[in-house]
Amino acid sequence: MKKINASINHQLLIGIFISFWFFIFAYFIKPFDDGTINSRQWILISVGFSLISFLCYGLIAIIQKSVYQKVLKWNIGFEIIILLLFHFLFLVITYSYYKSRILNGGFGFLEFLQVIILKSALISTPIIVLARIYSVKLIPIQDENIVIRGENKLDILKIRKKDLVCVSNSQNYVEIFFLVESQIKTKLIRSTLKKIHKDFDFLVQIHRSHLINPSHFKAWKNQDTIFLTQIELPVSKNFKELLLSL
């Protein structure tokens, strides 16, 4: 629960910061000032841009959370897509606001894109990136949870990543070995070792029937066997070099 609250709080702070920046951008820089817009209209424009930016960031935060819960990872590619999505949403909604009866703006779409959106994107993107990086650093590191799913609806196991010891093949199932209060537990899930390895690439294959979490490696028992936390497993020649290189 603390991790969820921290995530919500830091996304809220970024949204407020971005909306404040867009208010400053619109009111003081006046990106499309043609001399006919009075102070009241600039306030409407600035408040509108500010609220729209907050709304757009809120939407992408929801999308980001949904994507992360499904794939359980986040990388630079997802981050770029999120930034592009923010600017696209901001373009569509601000243009609709600009052409509404409230402002009744005179720019066409292409002119609006060139004069306003591209200018704001060039300035706001570095600010958004820095804000996201800084806000993440403010959140204490939490234990990362993983969710292992099988073919059946009831085949599901949610554990901390660091508690996963190994995964072994068991005919049409895989057997998950994990720690609960320092005691080893197991669960059978209808899946394949190949799929588990694809879903959780931090696991290392040491045998055609075994994947291990390398953080639980303790020592070599002999040339063909290793000790893990409360378990020992065979190592095949095909995967021995990979394990030695870790």
Features:
single chain, 246 residues, alpha+beta, 3-stranded antiparallel β-sheet, 6 helices, elongated, disordered N terminus, LytTR family transcriptional regulator DNA-binding domain-containing protein, transmembrane helix, LytTR_DNA-bd_dom, DNA-binding
Give a quick rundown of the structure:
By secondary structure, this protein is of the alpha+beta class.
Structure description:
The protein has 246 residues and is α+β, with helices and mostly antiparallel strands. The protein has helices at 2-29, 39-71, 76-98, 109-138, 193-199, 237-244; strands spanning 145-149, 156-160, 164-170, 173-180, 183-189, 204-207, 210-212, 219-222, 225-228, 231-234. The strands form 3 sheets. A 5-stranded antiparallel beta sheet has the order 5-4-3-7-6. Strands 8-9-10 form a 3-stranded antiparallel beta sheet, with no helix packed on it. Strands 1-2 form a two-stranded antiparallel sheet. A hairpin with a 2-residue loop joins strand 6 (204-207) and strand 7. Helix 1 packs antiparallel against helix 2 (39-71). It is elongated and about 85 Å long. Residues 1-6 have low confidence and may be disordered. It holds the Pfam family LytTR. GO terms for molecular function: DNA binding.
Strand order of the largest sheet: 5-4-3-7-6
Radius of gyration: 26 Å
> What is the straight-line distance between the termini?
34 Å
Estimate what percentage of residues fall within beta strands: 15-25%
SSE layout and pairing:
Elements lengths: L1 H28 L9 H33 L4 H23 L10 H30 L6 E5 L6 E5 L3 E7 L2 E8 L2 E7 L3 H7 L4 E4 L2 E3 L6 E4 L2 E4 L2 E4 L2 H8 L2
Antiparallel strand pairs: 1-2, 3-4, 3-7, 4-5, 6-7, 8-9, 9-10
